[in-house]
Structures are given as structure tokens and as C-alpha cells.
Amino acid sequence: MIINFSWLHPQELPTPVKAFLLSIALVTVSFLLQGNIGINLGDEGFLWYGTIQTGMGEVPVRDFQSYDPGRYYWGAAWCKIFGNYSLLSLRISNSIFQAVGLTFGLLSLRRITKSYWILTVEGLVLLLWMYPRHKLFEPSIAMAAVYFAILLIENPSLVQHLIAGVFVGVAAFLGRNHGLYTFASFFLLIIFIWLKLDRTNLFRRLLAWVGGIILGYYPMFFMLAVVPGFFDSFVDSIKFLFRFGRTNLPLPVPWFWRADYSKLNLIQSANAFFTGLFFLMFPVFNALAAIYLCFIKRDSIRENPTLVASSFVSFTYMHYAFSRADLPHLGQAIHPLLIGLISLPSALPSGYKKKLSISLLSITLVGTLLSVGLSSYYYLKATAPSDLYVQKKIGSDRIWIDLGTANLIDTVSTINSQLVKQNEGLLIAPHWPMFYPILGRKSPVWDIYLLFPETDTRQKEMIEELRKQNVNWIILGDVALDGRDDLRFKNTHPLLYQHFKDKFEVVANKGLPENYQLLHRRQ
């Protein structure tokens, strides 16, 4: 019997398989270079703590402060497969999702890129912008949105509308902001397709799409209906957004003309310039794309689905980039824009395509290396003084950490082991949720990241939770986040802060930062 293995030849592999293998290769190299470098005491700790608690049977949103549930069940499932809930296991689970998202980005660009060498460079650009590593769901979902939008443009059938709806529902389960962005993008795209390509069956298409959304969001509907207490907690989380009035803490946009280049060296100047330039590209590209879409001909839509699709997704994800205008949030939202920029030459006459494509990709790569590339964990360690990074044991993992953070971990670990008794609780506030999994402790209160102003009612509940959990020790920071005095803990949680002043006393500790105190309950 002769078995034909010709399909194993690289040239015979289906395009999705090739894209996935390329994605796996890029992500694997990235992880091997920097997967064990650095630690984020804030957002990464927020995700790690939630993943551990989910794996232990708790429910996100209901039992602890969290994002939407999807990403926690993803991480917990992989950690279960790996046999542990270590930090590196979490990072590997994120990297697996990253590889899936990058595959969608590569498949989108494959529509306009014939050479796999050039596609590899394009993939490198997308990969470098997948920053920071604890927020890999965001760019992955954004790239997937572009790909499913391309499929809808290429074949606007009822089935494809259903599939697009399922994607929107799944995106919402991973993050309600993604649900909102993808809902708006695909709704506008469906109307656009109806206006420009096929003026039939709009109601049936919308019905199929909405049906898909319901199907994709089914896990959340199931939790809302079946999990005790989850519905009320979910509603409270939505009320909080309306009470707070925004989805994030805003920052001034770092336009490149605002930088004081006289105080920066050459590398810093290039970093400030290109970071500001990429922010500028969002409104410029989207404005030009809107004009282009108004006048585009039917045949051009079919010929340039990548440009059209990325435009619709970029429209909505621009809000995310500017909701907190810093490099991490730009990295989480920029991928539809990058795909759109790279695909721009595809809309030009054939004589200009190749040269402009290479030139644009080269500029984008250089800008990427000099902006987000300078924030990569590998680069930061490689260019740091030799004594700045030390290997630190975090659970079962050995992580390269800067010396200041390593000393802080030692200090907090000593406080936990020498001062806090086994039957006592420890509160760490407001911005270091990473210490709970490092110490193997459960937060004594639902809130693990005390960033935003809280109501008097909730603060009184927290005081009662602290009493029930026998919390006699507190590590408390006085941090003016973003330089804003109103975001100091004493101003965001005044009742809780006054309770600490009345019921706790300061214990001298030299290892904590100057703006942090160790508090012990008065006898």
C-alpha cells in the first residue's frame, strides 16, 4: 500500500495551515527570547490572580473584580492542561491565543501579499505591536475581526453573516468592549455591503447576524441564567461604567509635535516621534478611508477586501487607543490600522504597487522598531546594565526581574511570612494585585485593583469584609496615578482611608517604597 505524503510539502499545504505555522514560529521565537523577562505588578497580576481563582472554582465578576469571563476560562483551561497555575503557564496560554490572533492577521494580509518572505516581515510588525503580553487578547480579537470582515465582503451570504455574528458574540464574552467595537464595525459593514454590493435581503442578513451574536454569546447568557448571583454582579459592573462615565482613565495624546526633543537623546527622540506618528495615523487613515469608502466602486470592493475590512474595524478600535493614549493601549488597538496601512498600495494602479508596498512596509517596520520595539522586554534587558536584572523565583518559575522589583518582592514576602499569621488576612492596596498569587494568598475583599472612585456604600461593605476576613495587616500606597491627586487612595476611597487611620497604626518598614506604608490593626 502506497501512502501519498505530497500534501506535507510546504508548497502543497493550505494557506491557513501555512499562516498558522508562520504564526507559531514567530510567537515561539518571541516567547523564547522574552517569555521569562519582567513582571507587571498591576494588570498582569490582575489577570493572573483571576485565572487562578477561576481554576479554583470561583466565578469572574461575581467572586472577584475582573474583566469579562472568557479570558479567565481560557487561561484556567490551559493551566489545567499544563498541571499548574504558574506565571509562565499563564504567559504560555496567552501566547497560544496570540498565535491564533496573529494567524488571522497573516491570513488577512495574505490576500495582498504573494511572497511569504514579505508576509514574514509583515507578521513581525504585527507581532511586535502585540504589546503588552498580558493584553494579547485585545490585538488578537482585533485582527480576527478584520479577517471575518474580509470573509463577509468576499461572500456576503446568510451563513457568513451568521458566522460574523458568532464572532461578535465570542468577542463580547472575552471583553464587552470588544463586543461593542465589533458590533459597531460589522453593523456598519453589513449596511455598506447592502448599499454597495447587493441591495437584497437586508432584514434576513441582519437577522442571521443577530442570531449568530446570540449563539456566540451563549456562554454568557448561560452564566447569567444559571450561575447564582452572577446576573446581579454583571449588572453592577455595567452600572459602574455608567457611574464612572468612561471606560478608562484618559491621558493626553502624545502627538509627536508635543515632545520636548531638546531633553531627549537620538533614540528617545525617535521613540517619541514614531509613537506620536502612529497615534496621528489613526484619525488620518480613518478620515481618508471614510472618503474612499464613500466613492469606491463595486469592483474595487471585491478587489480590495483587506483595505475595506480593516477600515471598518479601525474606525471603532480608534476609540480604544485614545481612551487612554499611551503605548500599551495603542498596541492593543493598532492592528486593524497596520493591516490597513500595509494594504493601501493594493488600491493603486499596478505600476505603483510593488515599490510603494515595499517602501511603506519598510517605514512601518522602522517606526515599529523605534516605538514599541524599544519597550520589548528583550530589548530592555539587553540594553540594561548587567547588574540591573536578577533571576527571581516566582512560584515554580525563575523570572528575570529588575533589581528594584526583586527587592520589593523580597520585602513583601518577608512581611507575609514573619508578621502575618496564618489565620490573618493581608490587604495590599491599591495597585499591586500581583502579590496575591506571588504570596499564595486570596484577596480579603472582592476588589483587587483599587483604581477608581468608589461609593460610600461599597466602602462600608469593604470595611465589613476586612473585619470578617480578620485583616490585621495592610500594605497601603499613596500614589497619585498619572500625577492626579484625585486618584490617590485617600481620595478614591475616603471612608476606607479614614477607617485605616482610626483602626490601624503605622509599622516601620525600610523595604517598602517611600509612598507605601505597612499598617497593623490597633489592639
What would you note in describing this structure?
The chain is an alpha+beta fold and 523 residues long. The chain folds into two domains: 12-377, no CATH class; 401-521, no CATH class. Helix content is 62%, strand content 7%. It has a four-stranded mixed β-sheet. It has a two-stranded antiparallel ribbon with strand order 1-2.
Short description:
This protein has helices at residues 15-34, 43-55, 70-82, 87-110, 116-128, 137-154, 158-174, 176-196, 202-216, 218-226, 230-244, 266-295, 298-303, 305-323, 327-333, 335-343, 350-370, 377-383, 403-418, 435-439, 456-468, 489-492, 494-503, and strands spanning 389-394, 397-402, 425-429, 471-477, 504-507, 516-521. By secondary structure, the protein is of the alpha+beta class.
Protein topology:
Elements: H1 15-34, H2 43-55, H3 70-82, H4 87-110, H5 116-128, H6 137-154, H7 158-174, H8 176-196, H9 202-216, H10 218-226, H11 230-244, H12 266-295, H13 298-303, H14 305-323, H15 327-333, H16 335-343, H17 350-370, H18 377-383, E1 389-394, E2 397-402, H19 403-418, E3 425-429, H20 435-439, H21 456-468, E4 471-477, H22 489-492, H23 494-503, E5 504-507, E6 516-521
Parallel strand pairs: 3-4
Antiparallel strand pairs: 1-2, 4-6, 5-6
Helix pairs in contact: 1-4, 1-5, 2-3, 3-4, 4-5, 4-6, 5-17, 6-7, 6-8, 6-14, 7-8, 7-9, 8-14, 12-14, 14-15, 14-16, 16-17, 21-23
